[in-house]
User: What shape does this take?
Amino acid sequence: MLTTTVPTAMRPPLHRTDPLIRIVTLFLLSLLTAASGFLVAPGQAHAAQAPAASAVVLAPCTSDDAAVCMIREMTPEEREQARETRMRYHGLLDEMESVAADMRASGASDEEIARKLVDMRNEAKDITRAGMSPEAVQALEARNMKKYGNPLGPTADQQFAKYGSWSAVIEAATRSSAAVDQELGLAPRGR
Assistant: This one.
């Protein structure tokens, strides 16, 4: 039986016995094992997948905003896409401010402007949600149905009841959620 020895320099990296490589490999494997808990949404693991004893368990989201909790569960790629979607939404809010200025210049009342802006804001939500996953849209719509009875958000009358004046409704219509913006690394609007 003939045996040959492959010189160390020609061995593939996986066959190295260097202690430093072994330590780094073990560290990376344990890190990946712990991080794998982030890849499966809570409650979606299969019964056959028992959690590893050393797996990291995510604490429940402490934010009052369901959108913030959804963002925290996103992959980096999903977060970047959400950030881009949010920036488009901010652009639509900018357009709303232009419409308000034009309406004011033409003599429209605060109530007329507020009603138009609330409708535009809800349309802007609908437009930006077109680029979201069906699950994300469903979660946002469920939140709004529970809170406002409308999948897109509050009506002008609900906003008037909340803020007490049409000018306050106008201001609120072009304001964005500071918590969501901060979670996506954007400056909040209208603060």
About this structure: Helices lie at 19-35, 66-72, 76-105, 110-129, 134-148, 156-163, 166-173, 178-183.
